[in-house]
Amino acid sequence: MNVLLISTYELGHQPLSLASPAAWLRRAGADVVCVDTSVTPLTAEMAANAALIGISVPMHTATRLALDMLPHLRAAAPNAYIVCYGLYAPLNAAILHQAGADCCLGGEVEEQLTAIWQHIAAGKRPSVADTILLNRLDLIPPDRNGLPPLDRYATLISGGKTHLAGYTETTRGCKHLCRHCPVVPVYNGHFRVVPRSTVLADIRAQVAAGARHITFGDPDFLNGPGHVLPIVRAMHAEFPDLTYDVTIKIEHIIRYAHLLPELRATGCIMVVSAVEALDDTILTRFAKRHSRADVVRAVQLLREHDIALNATFVAFTPWTTRQVYRDFLLGIAELGLIESVAPVQYGLRLLIPEGSRLLELPDVQALVEPFDPEALVYPWRHPDPAMDTLQREVMALAQCSEQCGESRSSFYLRLLDLCDRIIGPGPRPATVPDAAPVPRLSEPWYCCAEPTDSQLMAKYL
User: Fold this and answer.
1) Statement to judge: residues 41 and 105 lie in one domain
2) Does one domain contain both 216 and 127?
3) 141 found inside a domain
4) Separation of alpha carbons 260 and 266, rounded Å
5) Does some domain include residue 143?
6) Is residue 39 within 8 Å of 67, Cβ to Cβ?
7) Each residue's pLDDT tens digit, 24-82
8) Among candidates 290, 337, 333, 316, which has minimal Cα distance to 384?
9) Sign of the four-CA dihedral 251, 183, 47, 64
10) Is residue 138 part of a domain?
């Protein structure tokens, strides 16, 4: 084996972050093995046979797991050239180097990874500086050969049935500058399109592998409406029964409301939106560019067009008081979103990674402790210790709820009881209806969540 590409976690999706560079490297003549350690064991023999090892670190959890893996990889393959690539690689380069990486790349990495391989194939030891690459690449169709089959990954749950789900992207990066977003420090307001023919070829291959639903993982699907609409039109024409979901900012749901009928007509059944909070002060700090009133409008628009909402939140921040959290819970019920919010979303705590634009705020600078190289964040404590206690208890309750398959309305009621116990009794919704489940993916975790205990306990090599 010449090249080993590793993904530790990609939100339950078959990792595009391996399939895309694998296509480039194989085209250049490399023998590539892809290993997704979330579903497939990584052996010392795999590492020992590799001259080039690439580790995808697109998110916080993946990077934490990569840090644990790197010393084992270095011991098993002392002469291999190890590259960490993805959003979290260049921002955590010093720490990843200490753990065993030779180079850290962010942005559009396929061409550079191929150049590194060609250097190695010529018998030379690469010497590549850590860098963020934003050049425009003519991306080719991903090569998913050798990856675990789609039935090993998250499925769509809709109408009481499960369907195999594929994953692709039409764009990378984002033109927005939300302060808490990990995309911003790398792309800084830029986004890059993936050629339509490449996206459609990837969808076609995944449908052939059994996919009946596609997740478009763009940070914001409507960053470039003129690019994505022809893609979903062509996809629907070729696969009229194929459904899909997309991620769209609240701001864009409202601005492009006139596009929602076409999205629904072409198979869109679910929109993921990073609502983040229902408190306008927190939304302003995050620079989300929407308000609570905008959330209400966006919920109405999606409902009118029979598109389910999968809302995500950063439920615990330094500015989330007991009253703010109570208002958040009441707001979920008032908006009819109990079935639209996964239990984990009620417990997510703000992560402040290296490069976060939140560090521009004076009160955040005064609040955070020195950077923690193990947790990969600037730690902070809530001014009200009970809120930190509540957050830990909510996450434990969420993990238990997901494991036992509890309904979301039942979890919501238990969450209200938990709040009463930890932060004192408070107002409750008049009723909590046991509504029909909305379409959702079976993987409920989130890119900006801390790793679970089971993930951190994983052993490599």
Assistant:
1) yes
2) no
3) no
4) 10
5) no
6) no
7) 999 999 999 999 999 999 999 999 999 999 999 999 999 999 999 999 999 999 999 99
8) 316
9) negative
10) no
